[in-house]
Amino acid sequence: MNGKPKLLAISSPGGHWIQLTRLCSGLEGHYQVVYAMPAALFTSATLSERKMYAVTDVSADDKWRLVPCTLQILYILLKERPKAILSTGAAPGAVAIWLGSFLGIRTIWVDSIANVKHISRAGKLAKKRADVFLTQWEHLSNSQDILFKGAVL
Questions:
Q1: Is residue 23 part of a domain?
Q2: Is 123 inside a domain boundary?
Q3: Could you read off the pLDDT of 82-106 as tens digits, one per residue?
Q4: Cα–Cα distance for residue pair 99/30, rounded to 1 Å
């Protein structure tokens, strides 16, 4: 064990994953980052340098996938016992935020920069349980429970 606190970083593919890895690149010196992502994102480069778990991706079109996704995330949380969870979305991140909040784990949600006009659907779910909720658009902040601290991209 390296003595650094563990951070679970979890997201869906695409822009969510790009934003998450950019955030984590600055955190890896301070935290032992454990990643969870859809298996489709696994490559030899990501596997060789990072501790990774595969989770089932979920969308509004296939809500039945919430069951395996939830069980996989619960397994990761119980096995790794992270101090905090960081997610940029979407559904797997919202599931992790909810589960983590019930397990006493600090939770941080960073809503995707793609959500210009309003908070994302997954973000609205995560907001109910996240300890820290950040938007990347200043006009979406209410300076109380939706905070703006800048953009990742």
A1: yes
A2: yes
A3: 999 999 999 999 999 999 999 999 9
A4: 24
